[in-house]
Amino acid sequence: MMLTGLPLGTLLAIFGGAAAFTVVLYVLRLRRRPVAVPFAPLWHSVLGDRDASRLFSRLRRWLSLLLQLVLLALLAFALGDPRPTGSLGSGRNVVLLIDASASMQATDEKPTRLEAAKAKARELVQGLGGSDRALVVQMGDVPVPLSTLSDSPSELLQAIARVKASDTRARLGRALELAGDALRGAGRGEIVVLSDGALPEPSPPPDLGGARLSFVPVGKSGKNLAITAFSVRRYPLDKSRLEVLAEIANTSTERAEVELSLWGDGAIIDSERLHVEPGARLSRFFSDVGGTRRGLEARLRYADGTRDDLPADDRAYALVPERRRARVLVVTPGNTYLEAALLLDEYLDVTDVKPSAYPPPGRFDATIFDGVAPPPARDSGGLIYLNPPAQGSPVKVGKAISEFGFDTWDRKSRVLRFAALGDVQVAAGHAFEPQRDDKVLGASDDGPIMVAGTRSSRPFIALGFDPRQSDLVLRPAWPLLVLNAIDSFSETDASYLSAYRTGEVWRVPVQEGAREAELTLPDGTRRPVPVQDGRAVTFGERAGVYKLATGAEETRLVTEFAANLADPDESQILPHKTLSVAGKVAPPPEPGGGGVRRELWLLLVAVALCLSLVEWFTYHRRITV
Amino acid sequence: MGILELFQRKKTPRGEATRVELFDDEFQRKLEMLALVSRRVFTGRLRAERRSKKKGSGVEFADHRDYVPGDDIRSIDWNVYRRFGRLLVRLYEEEEDLSIYFLLDCSASMGFGGGQKFDQARRLVAALAYVGLANLDRVTIVGVNDGVPERLPTTRGKGRIFTVFRFLEKLRPGGPTDLGEALRSFAAQHKRRGLAVLVSDFYDPAGFEHGINVLRFEGFEPYVIHLVDEREAAPPLDGDLLLVDCETGDEREVTVTPAVLTRLKTAFADYRSNIEQYCTGKHVPYLAADVSTPFDEIVLRALRRGGFLK
């Protein structure tokens, strides 16, 4: 017998104190309640020689005291949580990995696969042997232990009840690593995976620490349609119009006629019926979408109105980037091509000044210096230099070059996006000598001719030639280059991220200077999120529209962003009846030890309760008083 | 009357408030009814006439005796003299008012349990006194305990009933019971014998029979009204208690159990039965008056049973 609760010394102290207190209460003379009677001789005739304090009565009181002391001893012993020595260490150690990925929200099992998995987990817990212990882990993108390695069924059942589905994928490898670590050295370890089997096989195979892996399959069918991609962007040269991409997939085994509808700001914009072959994906562009200010939503359903088994991927959300009028200052003696390029964007407020009039009053998002490079004013915003002179140029102007072009350019740069620069011919210009942190956006064989960087915390883009000395101004790349550069400074990026993907760490840009932010989830719950390097960092678990608030109450700025499941693997909900890890098929879990629990404290408390009932009965029947 | 006056509580002297409770209009109406009933019960008898054992100047012949000088010669039976030659005087049964003494136990036990026994006793005394007064009897009320007895002087005529009310209202229960001593004192103070109605719960540590015997031996005609409160036989007690006698202050530790309560109930019934048997054995009219029984019902029972009015 071993005490796994309070140590023996503490138990003796508790019992001694309680017993002494009880004895004192019994030794103290019973204070009887005085009651007036009209004629005491009547009571005398009734009571005769009976005396409440005679020896026999005292003995009965001592019997009651003895009963109380036994009661105390039992309770004190129960506090020690005694266990038979043989039962310790001989039980199983089980880790229950409950799949909480998006596919577990499928409704082919009623009410959901997750609830079915939780029910099976509860059965496993109730079937644990007396000396078995278990750990409940929620298996999502990140495995989350919800209990300790405990032998308490109530704790384990509560942990199972706390398992919640998320709109992420389940990563079996991480969960198995956690389970293996938890069971390392515990002996008789078993890892039970409760899942629909839509799990990528971990590579490399995790070390399970010798634990046995078993699998409990969940799920019946896999009838599902999914929106696997959904994004929106503004047309670069007409930002009032939108282009929307939706990709749908049919993960079931039958051909499906589906209805894909596009909603904007709560009203339907477009709808289309499509035929999708089993296992196929289909992309659909909604071009020239207008009239929507903020939110876009795609909805997918069967054309006959029936629902599939996983509603979570039948909707997708995207938010259109907000448009703000950018203030642009052009410092030029006169440049028709530049003015023409700026006229293409109606959302620009352009101010022209002669170089001699610089700087004018006001704040600007971007300033274009055409052939000049005066010291930039404080509120000039981002700086664009066209053929800057050596004096005042942010980047050192090198040798003069002639008859060159863009031999290389950064195609991923947002400034040069959509711009075809391969055929541009330039008559004359200069090569730059950029600093280490500068970024070369374009270069000829003779050296860098387009450089981006930062000077005194102010971004700049410098072009090493006068555009009028080239055919660039005659090409579509010219206005694209100018407008992209302005957009990059005014943060109205045409490639604005319209939706995030769940199951990833999101880094959402926030107001400059914000140190913390409050995130409102799609279900309305709020939680603070940290801000690092000007971006709020959080792990995305649920699809839907989020709100991110920064700043104080008076100057609070709320931005919205959307998140979608957009995971073809999770939309593949066809259940798997087996689970293979490292080439081995996981068998069903080992049956439990019959549910006989060897917790003696329960028995002790039960005996104490029975004794208490006996004491109560004998007291009220006037046997022990 | 203003509207506020409707809600004003009328201030009345404490005594009047008590009279409203004890002897209200309803009570007085019942008294009238009882007086009428008493007349029907004694139909054929002369009103206000009671034959006494004393021979005197009544109208109904009783006996003869020898003439002695000084006798009224008008009472000589001349027919007897003519036939037997002896001077005999006619004797008649003397008609006199009946004296009724109400002896009300005013010990503390009568006020036990909210004083219902004492209130019932006072109502009974008031009602019987009214019947007596209505029949032109001489009514005397004495409140007895171990101290100096409270006494309402002899009175008659039903117009005096309010005096009776006022007297009864002033009585308060208190002190121990010693009926023997108290009634011995009463007998010494009242030479005129008559009906002595003893109203008590007979919780006398010296024994209930002492008081009755004093009345018997002193020549009174005792009439026992035993106040009974059945709740005293089954008190709502349980557990370890210290019993205190409300009169003597005697204490007794006791653990009350259902068995003890059962025995108490039996003892209570035995005690009551003993009093009744004793009275029956001594030809003393006995009437048990339960506090839960309306007083007029008890009075009617007393009248129908007889012994109260000759």
Fraction of residues in H or I helices of chain B: 25-40%
Number of helices of chain B: 10
- Give the tally of β-strands of chain B: 10
Run of helices and strands of chain B: HHHEHEEHEEHHEHEEEHEH
| Coarse morphology of chain B | elongated
Q: Cα-atom Rg of chain A, whole angstroms?
A: 38 Å
Sequence stretches where pLDDT stays below 50 over 5 or more residues of chain B: 1-20, 41-54
Could you tell me the strand content of chain B as a percent range? 25-35%
If helices are DSSP runs of H or I spanning 4 or more residues, what is the number of helices of chain A? 10
Major sheet details of chain B: 6 strands, mixed
Largest interface: A-B, 23 and 32 residues
Provide the residue-averaged pLDDT of chain A.
84
Low-confidence stretches of chain A: none
| Shape assignment of chain A | elongated
Could you explain the architecture of this structure?
- The complex is a heterodimer of chains A (625) and B (310).
- Chain A is an alpha+beta fold and 625 residues long.
- Chain A is 22% helix and 33% strand.
- In chain A, the strands form 8 sheets. Chain A has an 8-stranded mixed β-sheet, covered by helices on one side. Chain A has a 7-stranded mixed β-sheet with strand order 26-32-31-28-29-30-27, with no helix packed on it.
- With 310 residues, chain B is an alpha/beta fold.
- In chain B, strand 4 and strand 5 form a beta hairpin.
- In chain B, helix 3 runs parallel beside helix 10 and helix 5 runs antiparallel to helix 6.
- The longest helix of chain B has 24 residues.
